[in-house]
């Protein structure tokens, strides 16, 4: 870790979440009021039914 990054991390150890939000807003960063926001729903491939045939084949090579 670089010295500058280490100093930033050390300075932030005693900062509360509310103080961090205030600091980011003061710097002009848009901070969402909601803690977690969903950006976009990601389509997911359905899993095969349990016990049914599966056409999935995978190999793992440990190196």
Attribute tags:
63 residues, mainly alpha, 2 helices, 0% strand
Overview of the structural elements:
This protein is mainly alpha-helical. The protein has a domain at 1-34. The protein has helices at residues 3-11, 17-26.
Provide a quick synopsis of the model.
The chain is mostly helical.
In total, how many beta strands? 0
The quaternary organization reads as: single chain
Rg calc: 22 Å
Give the biggest beta sheet: none
Distance between the termini: 28 Å
Shape: elongated
Helical content stands at 25-40%
Mean pLDDT: 77
Low-confidence stretches: none
User: Order of helices and strands, N to C?
Assistant: HH
Q: Give the structural class.
A: mainly alpha
Beta strand %? under 5%
Helix count?
Answer: 2
SSE diagram, text form:
Blueprint: H1 3-11, H2 17-26
